[in-house]
Automatic annotation (TrEMBL):
InterPro entries: Caspase-like_dom_sf (IPR029030), Caspase-related_regulators (IPR052039), Pept_C14_caspase (IPR011600), Pept_C14_p20 (IPR001309), TPR-like_helical_dom_sf (IPR011990), TPR_rpt (IPR019734). TPR repeats lie at residues 94-127, 128-161. Coiled coil: none annotated. GO terms for molecular function: cysteine-type endopeptidase activity. Gene3D superfamilies: 3.40.50.1460, Tetratricopeptide repeat domain. Keywords: Signal, TPR repeat. Residues 306-326 have a biased composition (Low complexity). The keyword rRNA processing does not apply. Residues 295-326 are annotated as: Disordered. This is Tetratricopeptide repeat-containing protein. PANTHER family: MUCOSA ASSOCIATED LYMPHOID TISSUE LYMPHOMA TRANSLOCATION PROTEIN 1/PARACASPASE (PTHR22576), MUCOSA-ASSOCIATED LYMPHOID TISSUE LYMPHOMA TRANSLOCATION PROTEIN 1 (PTHR22576:SF37).
Amino acid sequence: MRRLMLILTMALSALWSQPTLAQSRSQLGPLCTTDTTPADQQIDACNKIIALKVFSGGQLATIYFWRAVGWNKKGNYSQVIADTTEALRLKPDQALYNLRGSAYFDKGEYDIAIADFNDALRSGPPSGTIFHNRGNAFRGKGDYAKAIADYDSANRLSPNAYTLLNRGLSKQALGDLDGALADINEAIRLDPSLPSGLIDRTVVWRAKGDLDRAIADGTEAIRLAKAKAPTNIMTPPGSVLITAYLHRALAYEAKGDYPRAREDFKATLEGVASDAGSKANQATAKVRLSLLTDAGAPAAPPPRTAPSSPQQTTTSTPAAPTTTKPAANAGRRIALVIGNGAYQYVRALPNPSNDARSIAKSLRDIGFVVTVGIDLDRAAMQTMTREFLREAARAQVAVVYYAGHGVQIDGRNYLVPVDIQFQSGTDVTAVMMDMDTIMAGLDDQVRTNILILDACRNNPMAPKVASAGASRGIEGEAGSGLAAPTSLGAGSSTLGAGTLIAFATAPGQVALDGEGANSPFSAALSRHIGTPGLEVQQMLTRVRAEVVAATKSKQVPWSNSSLLGEVYLAEK
């Protein structure tokens, strides 16, 4: 996260001259207003000062600020926001806006964080710290150009290793690996004791395919993180070590050293995660660990093509490169394509099998190694998905396409196998595929992930609603729908860096199965997905326009993206 602290500009010395505090100021004052005080002691001391009710205005705002610092050390960002909001009510101050914006950032609420950082910049002199933190929020939103501009401003005002590291990460996100490496190397030169620099360089080495260097840097990052606690009090507790273990684990897995990868994934899960990034890292570690420890875990790197079965076909063709501008992004590209229509206990759908075969052919034609599953029951669907997630560890681009029934329960998306039975009193989520699990398993900064769902996102417990034509919602159930996260980087389950999710229909609506051989969405997608030189989001815009026209506006495809740069599925 690498946020920077801006101490309140208010004079604190006058605070302790109040007669009421004559006997307690030697203990309560320093404990409350010293950034090295342990969090619980700091909060307790500030609580006692507030309880005395002798301060008001700016002086009371100062106490609330320092109590917020204590809450920040504990990773309790809701309390940070509450205390800084009260302090701002008493006396607006640049440092208060910065601290509250940083708390919103750690909660993944980037737009609100940016608004607070804007207020901070308006309420005081130019500050490299605030430019740096606003740059982080822009980076969280995937707006890397604005992030780099803010890091440039921060570096001019107050150069530091953290700013160089975050600028390097933004360059890496845009595909400028050499520029990223230059920034990270300079940051490490400025502060060789900083584990964050080595973690970032681990990511770049993995992106370059130099796994031995990635592992070496990850090992040194872990050593430094264990030897010295973060000196920046704005760094979320435990986040550095969690991140270091995860990235070394991913490097070990990509190399095929599964025993060491498993140990590092376990170590990732042992940390205490308080911020959105650490929680996402642990979600990824949990899925990757399960992939390496279950009965199907490989003893050595799996072959490029999985064996076929009656419910699965895998086709390999020479891979054409996927281009991520401004740098070329060539590498192995894989796809999982599933079409479920022959449902046994809910309304069957005629087209998903046709849709899956059409999309699979389109992806093969542009160089993807495609695994196809038709009418999968729960066991087959789980096995195929887990094999695909294992293979993704060595891929540059991973595409998941699903056609069939889908539901939303308690804010989570589920894909429905053909043997599903919705029965009262049973846990239906246990017999479906959780999309959050798939996303967490794919979450990785060095891979582009594209998930395409031609499915309705219904809640099977909701009342029945009418829909126009046959739809991919569960019959008799209804359409409260589910939107993808407002920001893929904001969820506690997955960061989603480099991820695009495309839905066949807008939030709260149903996806039509279609009256022809294919659904309206899949028919349009298969026509455009292989267009040479068409950027993937522009491709989805064309698909959206075609579907809206074909359905007379009854269905509007929808997508959310945190893609790292422009992605081209087919060469120009």
